[in-house]
Amino acid sequence: MKNIVLIGFMGCGKSTFGKKISKKLNYQFVDTDKWIEKQQGQTISSIFATQGEAAFRQMETEAAQTLSKEEGLVLSTGGGMVKTPKTMEALCQNAIVVYLKATPEHIFQNIGHDTTRPLLQTDDKLGAIRRLMEEREDLYQRYATVTVTVSGHSITGTTNAILHQLEGLL
Ligand code: S3P
Q1: Domain assignment of residue 162, given as a range
Q2: Ligand 1, atom 3: nearest CA belongs to which residue?
Q3: What's the CATH number where 67 sits?
Q4: pLDDT digits (tens, 9 = 90+) for 87-145
């Protein structure tokens, strides 16, 4: 049984859709950020503040290496996991990778008021979202087995689109 790995920018809905499709397919759902927080006994914000981003990226690699040994998981990943080749090498093993693509405006609407994402704690959040997304877009595309557009669609519509794309791949 393959794992289903959801990638995409912060706030695109990886956890929301991950939970929904895991229920439909009877897979186990794991959120890598939550997994890391549990392992560390610290929130993501606190890890960034006390240990820095590089240490967090290393934790993501460990999460990917550990979780990819299992099968039948739906994994919701941190939006920056695509930055580390070693992490993606582990994650993509025996997995179908679904890129959830959203516009910067949609992301801003979803998480404009969020305070738990260290990389977006700036006065110009939309600008930061645009910059980071531009930096990462090629990476999301590179690792995606399939891409599903989230913006402009209902939650049910997107969930069904993901399930439809997965048909024949599982
Ligand atoms: C990050 C995304 C976050 C979290 C951390 C860094 C990123 O996860 O891992 O704040 O670099 O894009 P979500 O994509 O679940 O928000």
Answers
A1: 3-166
A2: 78
A3: 3.40.50.300
A4: 999 999 999 999 999 999 999 999 999 999 999 999 999 999 999 999 999 999 999 99
CA of 52 to the centre of ligand 1 (A): 13
φ, ψ of residue 61 to 5 degrees: the values are -60, -45
CA distance 118 to 100: 21
Minimum-distance ligand 1 atom for the alpha carbon of 116:
10
Q: How many distinct structural domains can be found in the chain?
A: 1
Instruction: Supply the pLDDT for residue 48.
Output: 98
Please choose from 6, 7, 10 the residue to mutate so as to test ligand 1's pocket, defined by most ligand atoms within 8 A of CB.
10
Which of 97, 100, 124 has the alpha carbon at shortest distance from 112? 124
| Stated pTM of the model | 0.98
| Atom of ligand 1 at shortest range from CA of 45 | 10
146-149/3-7 β-pairing:
unpaired
How many other β-carbons are positioned within 10 Å of the β-carbon of residue 121?
13
Ligand 1 contacts (CB < 6 A) are 10, 14, 33, 44, 78-80, 117-119
Q: How confident is the model at residue 24 (pLDDT cuts 50, 70, 90)?
A: very high
